[in-house]
Design goal:
This protein is mostly beta strands and 126 residues long. 0% of the residues lie in helices and 49% in strands. Strands 2, 4, 5, 6, 9, 10 and 11 form a 7-stranded mixed β-sheet that branches. Strands 1-3-8-7 form a 4-stranded antiparallel β-sheet, with no helix packed on it. It is globular, with a radius of gyration of 14 Å.
Amino acid sequence: QVQLKEYGGGSVQAGGSLRLSCAASGYTYSRYCMGWFRQGPGKEREGVASFYTVDGTTYYADSVKGRFAISQDNVDHTLYLQMNSLKPEDTAMYYCAADPGRSVSTCNTRNHFNYWGQGTQVTVSS
């Protein structure tokens, strides 16, 4: 069983950077798909990025490609989302998620995730 908690949200100006962290407990070296999602006010949840723990395969939404980077510490399993060149449209509640037993072919933000953090707010101002 995995428990997740996000850290690092806050308010930044457009063009700035933030690094979100997701502390993972109950994590074992097994087949996991990890992901970052976000949901702006009045909007549907959007997949941001995914990370496959077996081989490090990543996927990024087109809206963040080239600006955001997902990674995981291979010792303590903390999941990170480095966010650069932030834009006001990046304003959202950001959630990390995990799902066990995935194959690389199904590790993407469109599929179901069993475990979720509580979210951390990111606000980008002009």
